[in-house]
Amino acid sequence: xxxxxxxxxxxxxxxxxxxxxxxxxxxxxxxxxxxxxxxxxxxxxxxxxxxxxxxxxxxxxxxxxxxxxxxxxxxxxxxxxxxxxxxxxxxxxxxxxxxxxxxxxxxxxxxxxxxxxxxxxxxxxxxxxxxxxxxxxxxxxxxxxxxxxxxxxxxxxxxxxxxxxxxxxxxxxxxxxxxxxxxxxxxxxxxxxxxxxxxxxxxxxxxxxxxxxxxxxxxxxxxxxxxxxxxxxxxxxxxxxxxxxxxxxxxxxxxxxxxxxxxxxxxxxxxxxxxxxxxxxxxxxxxxxxxxxxxxxxxxxxxxxxxxxxxxxxxxxxxxxxxxxxxxxxxxxxxxxxxxxxxxxxxxxxxxxxx
Length: 355
Description:
Blueprint: H1 2-46, H2 54-75, E1 78-82, E2 85-91, H3 100-132, H4 134-140, H5 148-167, H6 172-186, E3 193-196, E4 201-203, E5 209-211, H7 213-250, H8 253-292, H9 303-314, H10 317-322, H11 324-354
Helix pairs in contact: 1-2, 1-6, 1-9, 1-11, 2-3, 3-4, 3-5, 3-7, 3-8, 5-7, 7-8, 8-9
Subcellular location: Cell projection, Cilium membrane
Membrane topology: Multi-pass membrane protein
Function: An odorant receptor which affects chemotaxis to the volatile odorant diacetyl. Specifies AWA neuronal cell fate via the odr-7 pathway.
């Protein structure tokens, strides 16, 4: 009886959240696109010359975030945990113009962008450290080797997709395990959804729980990618910070402009690291760890999905307001708009005076 009441409450909450989802996704997509377009303009027009080729990596990141936010809006996924499974799904309308294969591809692409974002974050820290260590730069990033930073996200995308295809795709066992949950909570049949789900355990012949090897192998590969990114952030980030402090104390006033610019870029990057950690990595980590140890989280609402949707909205802001030249560019833009309105108002007043 208690279980039925819980599922009824979850069913009502789920439908309420799904109605709100489209508004959140639409607002997130529009704001994120505007902010990232503005940031691209600032990077291309207002970047100091000493920023060098880092501009390319910054523009690449902004373009990726525009792709990410459009994919997030198109996929409109929901993430929830059920027992010892994590589920990422989207509603699919049978016999619609959108084939089921495309619907599934949207779910997979949505998951893969998480791995790509980890690689992009690591690429930024590798580059920032290389600027402060000439030996490291010449050994690993000089010449065409610099473009390896742009290739890393696509390598991670292929790797992450392979892991998903190996251990996350639905099968008869996962369908049977989840179908009642989809119907009771979301009022959706299996033919109305596209989903991926690492199901960490399965029932043995005696009804006991046994490890579901493909899911664990797939998750282990994903954790390797996450760990490699975290290593770059923590290890290279700390060394980069120490090098910047050293350069600021030793260099002349002329050279301090360059060191101060590196400090601004590093500070912006640190905040850009905190944002996805809080909005993406920690919530998703909790969502994966609990089913791995067979702790039932219950219904998640759209908390994780909505938190992830905020990421591309907030992420451009540190660069726009911490980097001095970009901040000045925004102020100049608003001042210019204010002057145009003032001139337009004076012209209109003058015309009224002559009438």
